[in-house]
Design brief:
Blueprint: H1 2-31, H2 37-61, H3 71-95, H4 99-110, H5 114-157, H6 165-173, H7 176-189, H8 196-220, H9 231-254, H10 259-269, H11 276-283, H12 288-315
Family: Belongs to the auxin efflux carrier (TC 2.A.69) family.
Membrane topology: Multi-pass membrane protein
GO cellular component, one term: plasma membrane
Length: about 325
Amino acid sequence: MESGFIASMLFSASVTLPNILMLILGIYLKKIGMINDHFSNQGSKLVFNITLPALLFLSIIKNPTDYNSQLSVVGIGILGTLILFILAELFAARYVNDKKERGTFVQGVFRANSGIIGLSLCANAYGSAGLAIASVYTAIITLLFNVLAVITLSRSLAEGGKTNFLYIFQQLIKNPLILSIIAALIFTRLGFSLPQTLISTADYLADMTLPLALLCAGASLNLRNMDGSSRVAIWSSIGRVLLAPLLMVLIARLFGLQGIDLGVIFLMSATPAAAASYAMVRSMGGYAKTAANIIGITTFAAMFGSSIGIVILKQLNWM
């Protein structure tokens, strides 16, 4: 029993510690002035528009898989996200007094950082096999995240709470993550192949993604904004770090999932609030400080939450 617990602890450390160290390195490099906000902003744009799409594209075309077998994983992700969204909306309507804060709260609960932290955790835990499953999962969930985020923010920030469906459509058709995954799925479906030179070039870009994204995430954290003054930020963070992964795991077990499938679902949901949530709140005229607080709180809390969750699930032989 003791050896099993130690093995679970070591596995947990192997999955989460690289991410934690890279985040800390980003904080340190910014502190000593080696990188700054401009570097973080430009690096984040590079990741979002170039290197992460390359990583997602390659992970799909280089790891052919039976996507029908992943319907249960994706379906549970969709179901869990919708349940989180509804619960958060109901909670916000009752307990968040400032209407303009409601969308920020709701987005913080359901919108996980699956595109960066989640993919990194799955890669650390299961290698290319986990990354292939996680990439397909990310494709669908990213699409759903964007739709739900625009809906809830539009309702809480716009006059009369009207949803701008044209804006939603525009955001979806130009999202590089969604486009790259759709392209990869079409590419593999039609049986095409890329020249090795192009694959090697794309590999260079893809290999930059996780370390650069984690460095930028660490450097972007504003520790001064993590003052805990906003009850909305604290409530939303609790929902993101505790409720979200617990709900996802319970749904997965209800449908009989275990092993790598349940592991991917847990690792994808046991992540901080997505960094993109801050940009969306700010661009739509919401309270950016609340969004920043949620990201800051959940980034640190999720480090410990995911580690503890991995140990528990390994002890139960669920992942």
